[in-house]
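Re: the request from the purification team.
They wanted to know what the chain is likely to look like in 3D before they choose a buffer screen. I agreed to run a prediction and write the result into the notebook, where they can find it.
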Amino acid sequence: MDTLITQIDQITKKFVNSFAPLNGEQLNWKPGSGTWSIAQNIEHLIIVNESYYPVIESIRHIDYTPPFISKLNFIVSLFGKIILKSVSPERHRKTKTFPIWEPAVSEISPDILKRFENHQEALKKIVTNSIDLISNGIIISSPANKNVVYKLETAFEIIVNHEQRHYNQAKEVLDKLP
């Protein structure tokens, strides 16, 4: 668990150190129509991560009913490995996100980095408060598809890898800034 918290702190620091000097125009600049801006990458992370919160809250309130497929351990393990690999920081190809996780298409407020820092603090609390659920091997559904299931611990690993992936993507945009 400490490793996840450390990784969240490290990725937060990387985002702030790399992008805090930028103004709103630079944060929202896109090198092309098929590419997200730095701000969109950050907003996307907040949207994705926060989509897990209701699932975890539902488990806490004992009104969460995982789909039948979650009883098949090999499926749970397989989905976890597939999703984890798909969000690997080493981007070999672009992947399309689910519509529920798409960032705004309009200009994003320049306070996006501050919002991200606050979000990361909240995320660390969620992870820390979920230690009991992780040790019980709780299985959750992806917020984007109820039939995609994996362990909660894997979900947090997915989140951290996904953040690193989008840091790399945002850094590529930074490197192209005019």
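For the purification team: The mean pLDDT is 92.
Please add any questions underneath this entry.
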